[in-house]
Structure formats: C-alpha cells, structure tokens
C-alpha cells in the first residue's frame, strides 16, 4: 500500500465531511477553531494535523507532534495498541464512535479523555488516515469509566485476589491522576504498606511508618473519606507527612473487615490537583468496600486451604493428605507378593507371605527410611516428614487372624512406648 502524504489526508478530510464543496483549507480552519482537540494521522498513525486545542490540551507544539505516532499522547502503551487493533487500522469497519481512554500531557499529567475516532477514506474508498476528536472527560464520565474498570477487575476469574487489588489501585490512580496508591494495614500506631503502586517505583510493600506521620491519621480520626488537593496551601502544611514527603494531594478512606479496622486505601501525589468532588468520595467508598470484600474472600479461602492441610482441633497435618502420601510410599516397597491395606484410623497392615520376622523388620526399617527421605506434600507446597511405628508378628500354626493382629498391635504399642519411629516384635 502506498504511503499517504499530508495532502492525501487533507483531501480525505473533505471526503470524510461529506461536504465536497468546502476546500481542505477551509476544513483546516474549521478544525483550528474547534474547542475540542482534533488529531489527524496517516495510516501509520503518525500525526499530520493537529489544531490549537490539541496543543493546549496536551502541552505540545505542532512541530513537536507532526510526524510522531499518537502513542506519544497515550498514558499506557497497551491502550495505544488496543485502539490500533480495534479501530485505527486499514481493515477496520467500525463507524465513528465515542470511547474513553487515559492520555498523558507533556508534563506527565494523566487525564481521562472522551474520544470520537473514525477512519478517513478517499473518494475511491481507500483508507488514507484516521481522525480523533478528544476532550477531557467530565466528572460523571470519569466515574462511569472507573466503575466499568472496577467491574471488569472484580469479575475477572483469571486474576488472583492480589492481582485484583493491584489492578484496583492502578484504576484509582488513573481516575484521580495521582502517583502513589497504597493499601495499608494499621495496627495501633503501626502503619504497614501491604500493597502499593508507585509510578516512580520508590515505595515498596512491607514499608512501615508511624501512622501519625501519614495523612491517614486524619482519615482514621474522621472515620470517613478525607481528601486534600493542595496540602501546601491548607491547614495541614505543617503535618509530618507534608514536611517529610511533600505530598500535595491525598484522598483516603478506611477499610473495615468483619467490623474491625483493617487499614486504609489511599492515593497521593507530590503535585496539587483540582479539588476532589462528590463523585470522587463516592468512588473511594466503593473501592473500600470492594477491597474489603476481596480481603475477606482471600482470608476465607486461605483458612479453608489451611483446614485442608491441618486438623482444626489437633493442629496436626491433615490426615487425608498425609495418609495418601504414606500409601504412595508404602506401595513402592516390598515384593510383588506382598500387599498393604488400611485397617482403620492411621493404621496399616502389611502381609508378607512366606517371609519371617527378620525380613519383616527389614521391610519396616526400609519404609521408615523412605518416609524420612521423601517428605509428603500436604498441599500449597507445604512438606512434612512422616515417621512410622511398626509391630511385627509371625503367623503360627492354626492361629486365627484376630490373634496375629492382636500380637502385631501389641508389638506396635511397644514401639510407641520406646520412643516411636521404630519396629518391634
């Protein structure tokens, strides 16, 4: 396919407008006067025309934009790729439609933009470029976008609870246009960063602070969502958090689990922002409830997994997993003519036809050594080492089964009395 020139794209503007009598120059003048940003690209998504509103919205000059891919304007490269696959390609048959995406200005500030995107065609129907009309999203539109993201995250069955929490933190950063997102765990005066997203990569999970040195102390004091959009110009300019970290903006809300304080979810930045609105406070409450639910389900599932591994009353490793592991090891020892079976509880019986006590002792000690060398996986990667106490009895002439089992049982009790993990007769 031939590479379109800026002149081709301007011609397409006329065809796209369906007003062939208006010259491309006049169309350019119309776009220049638009209040919304207008971006026109060639088929390679390189910018060939932007209006004055684009320069004002994104903070770049025309000379800085012309010839650059529109990737420059996106906050996330994955969004650029997604839109290219979906609509900005020569095979696309999508009609002009509105969609929301996060952009980034030249100073690094991210914002949610509502975009009308369309394919531009020549009079012959050939794709010669693409057009996007962008305006900053209004509060209600931003909230709708955030709600959609929260729904998509929480309903994604492929994501773990931890992945969902991180994604929710990122969604909050996108919505508020801030730099740091934290899920904190608070106990007394101890503030621990349980999960975080820091766009500068400076903050790490498990970092600890005194809660009085964080803005969250105000959130806890008010027991509700608290926000500061310009700390340096507010009553908290002398707060230790501002003095130490120069965080200008913050919004945070408590998280409660089973009626008790768990911590907070909060977002902050070293830059001031526009004052937080009512929708922002409502969104914080929703994020708090969502994260609280995820924490609850995570803790419940971990408890169920623990119960599957450990007996709740005795605290000992789960018998079912341990017995299955024992059976696997036991089935791999002895002769083909020997066999083993469970007779109740945690007791097994080995039958060794044509053998004697010495051979039985050798098999018992071999089993002990195998168990010592092969820890049993009782679930979730947790390994335990089993021991065995064995009792031997040799069948006497005309002896009943009940009798030999009783003598073997007595020998086993003898092994336990002598310190376990041994074979006696």
How would the blueprint of this fold be written?
Blueprint: H1 6-17, H2 24-32, E1 37-41, E2 47-50, H3 52-58, H4 62-65, H5 77-86, E3 97-104, E4 110-121, E5 127-136, H6 139-154, H7 161-176, E6 180-187, E7 190-198, E8 208-210, H8 216-222, E9 226-228, H9 240-245, E10 249-257, E11 260-269, H10 278-309, H11 319-330, E12 339-344, E13 347-351, H12 357-373, E14 376-377, E15 383-384, E16 390-391, H13 401-417, E17 423-424
Helix pairs in contact: 1-2, 6-7, 6-10, 7-10
Question: Can you give a write-up of this model?
Answer:
The chain is an alpha+beta fold and 425 residues long. The chain folds into three domains: 6-137, Beta-Lactamase, CATH 3.30.450; 142-309, GAF domain (Beta-Lactamase, 2-Layer Sandwich), CATH 3.30.450; 319-424, Alpha-Beta Plaits, CATH 3.30.70. The chain is 39% helix and 24% strand. The chain is built from 13 helices and 17 strands. The chain has helices at 6-17, 24-32, 52-58, 62-65, 77-86, 139-154, 161-176, 216-222, 240-245, 278-309, 319-330, 357-373, 401-417, and strands at 37-41, 47-50, 97-104, 110-121, 127-136, 180-187, 190-198, 208-210, 226-228, 249-257, 260-269, 339-344, 347-351, 376-377, 383-384, 390-391, 423-424. A six-stranded antiparallel β-sheet has the order 8-7-6-11-10-9, sandwiched between helices. A five-stranded antiparallel β-sheet has the order 2-1-5-4-3. It has a two-stranded antiparallel sheet with strand order 12-13. Strand 3 and strand 4 (110-121) form a beta hairpin. It is elongated and about 115 Å long. 30% of the residues are buried. Residues 1-23 have low confidence and may be disordered.
């Amino acid at each position: 396919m031939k590479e379109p020139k800026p002149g081709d794209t301007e011609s397409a503007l006329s065809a796209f407008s369906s007003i062939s009598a208006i010259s491309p120059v006049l169309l350019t003048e119309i776009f220049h006067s638009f209040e919304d940003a207008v971006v026109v690209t060639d088929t390679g998504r390189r910018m060939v025309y932007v209006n004055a509103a684009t320069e004002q919205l994104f903070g770049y000059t025309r000379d800085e934009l012309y010839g650059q891919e529109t990737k420059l304007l996106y906050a996330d490269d994955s969004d650029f790729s997604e839109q290219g696959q979906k609509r900005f390609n020569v095979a696309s048959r999508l009609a002009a439609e509105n969609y929301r995406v996060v952009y980034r200005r030249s100073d690094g500030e991210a914002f949610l933009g509502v975009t009308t995107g369309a394919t531009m065609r020549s009079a012959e129907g050939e794709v010669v470029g693409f057009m996007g009309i962008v305006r900053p999203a209004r509060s209600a539109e931003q909230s709708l976008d955030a709600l959609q993201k929260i729904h998509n995250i929480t309903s994604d069955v492929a994501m773990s609870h931890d992945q969902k929490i991180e994604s929710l933190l990122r969604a909050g950063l996108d919505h508020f246009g801030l730099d740091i997102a934290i899920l904190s765990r608070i106990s007394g005066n101890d503030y621990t960063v349980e999960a975080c997203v820091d766009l500068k990569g400076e903050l790490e999970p498990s970092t600890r602070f005194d809660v009085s040195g964080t803005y969250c102390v105000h959130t806890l004091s008010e027991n509700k969502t608290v926000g500061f959009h310009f700390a340096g110009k507010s009553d908290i300019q002398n707060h230790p958090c501002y003095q130490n970290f120069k965080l200008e903006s913050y919004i945070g809300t408590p998280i409660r689990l089973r009626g008790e304080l768990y911590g907070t979810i909060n977002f902050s930045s070293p830059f001031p922002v526009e004052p937080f609105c009512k929708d922002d406070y409502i969104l914080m409450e929703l994020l708090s409830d969502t994260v609280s639910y995820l924490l609850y389900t995570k803790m419940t599932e971990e408890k169920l997994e623990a119960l599957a591994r450990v007996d709740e009353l005795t605290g000992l490793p789960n018998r079912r997993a341990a017995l299955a592991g024992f059976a696997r090891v036991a089935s791999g020892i002895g002769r083909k003519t020997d066999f083993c079976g469970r007779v109740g509880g945690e007791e097994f019986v080995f039958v060794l036809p044509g053998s004697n006590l010495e051979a039985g002792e050798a098999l018992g000690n071999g089993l002990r050594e195998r168990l010592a060398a092969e820890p049993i996986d009782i679930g979730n990667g947790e390994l335990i080492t089993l021991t065995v106490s064995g009792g031997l009895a040799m069948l006497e002439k005309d002896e009943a089964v009940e009798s030999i089992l009783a003598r073997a049982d007595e020998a086993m009790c003898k092994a336990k009395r002598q310190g376990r993990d041994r074979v006696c007769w």
